Amino acid sequence: MTRKVFSLLATLALIHSAQATTLTPRLNSVSSQITAPTLSLASEEDEEEGLFWWGAGANITSNYLWRGYDQPYSGNMFDPAIQPSVTLGLGAFYVDLWYNFSTMSKYQELDMTLGFDYNNLSITLYDVWCDYGKAFWTNDFLDDQNHSLTATIEYTFFDRLRLHWGTTFLHSADWLYNEDGSRKRRAFSSYFEVAYTQPVKDLFDIEITAGASPWTGPFWCAGPRKMVDGAPELDFDNIPEGFNVTNLSLMLNKEFEVGAATIPVNLGYVFNPTTKRHYAILKTGFAF
Which of 105, 123, 208, 220 is most buried when burial is the number of CB atoms within 10 A of its CB? Predict the structure, then answer.
């Protein structure tokens, strides 16, 4: 279903190979990684007048975390990732292509987003393709099992308190099952997050985040099964049920202006209470 909606976006993405580093990334918070790009060159005047705008950038990060999980689900603290992106907008609406390549695990992800971003409100609908070591131009890109369709809504109060909600509507693994193994119903795996940002004079911003799965989420929420070589092994065959906190983070964020470019630097700590895993994160990049 989603392949028709995003076929044009996927065609644009073909100009970048699986190892591409020439585009550049959404500068999202480490906490949710998330849905609404903070990379945006549109002013409020542009949005009101319906003007065309664009943005581009690239990040490099010590690990790709999403909702408190490292996306290769390896448990490794260090798995450097390159994350380019490009955004095209018209007023408050935009189309965003964002790519991740994790250098050690070879994990790849392409997010294709349709979004609305105005004042403190952000709404997105995005398709995610992910796999390991496979190029986008192979038939694997059209495999429904590699895609998920998620909608998010986010609002920021007083430029300090950010509330985020995301729900997955389509994914081959997003089902709850009966005891006999038959499908019971779609799980609509979801995630909500509360984040508070406190500026420290003109030095940097401190961001404190708490995020959780409000109900059983087989699409993305996994728990430790047993100890393997001294570390808990994740198990998607035994999904943690009900409410689970997966993301507690403390980040120090700073942006530097160099000519027409913005250079963000993010340093922080992330703890996933569900898997009992800890991560130190360092991320930087550029946007223009």
Answer: 220
- DSSP-assigned states of every residue in 19-81: T--SS------TTT--SS-S-----HHHHHHT-EEEEEEEEEESS-EETTEETT-S--S---E
Cα torsion 59, 135, 63, 172: sign = positive
Query: Which of 152, 52, 33 is CA-nearest to residue 92?
Result: 52
- Whether this model's pTM surpasses 0.85: no
Give the DSSP H/E element, type plus range, for residue 12.
Answer: helix 7-13
Q: What is the 3-class SS of 108-128, one letter each residue?
A: EEEEEEEEEEECCEEEEEEEE
CA count, 13 A, side-chain hemisphere, 150 = 26
| Structural domain of 26 | 2-287
Q: pLDDT at position 130, please?
A: 87
- The answer to whether residue 22 scores a pLDDT higher than 50 is no
Q: Which of 262, 197, 209, 199 is nearest to 39 (CA)?
A: 262
- The CA-atom distances, in angstroms, between 51 and each of 87, 89, 91, 93, 233 are 14, 8, 5, 10, 49
- Phi/psi at 9 (5° precision): -65, -40
Structural domain count, the chain:
1
- CATH no. for residue 90? 2.40.160.40
pLDDT-based confidence at residue 23 (cuts at 50, 70, 90): very low
pLDDT at 25: 33
pLDDT band for position 124 (50/70/90)?
very high
Distances 15 to 9, 82, 104, 124, 137 between C-alpha atoms, Å:
11, 16, 23, 24, 10
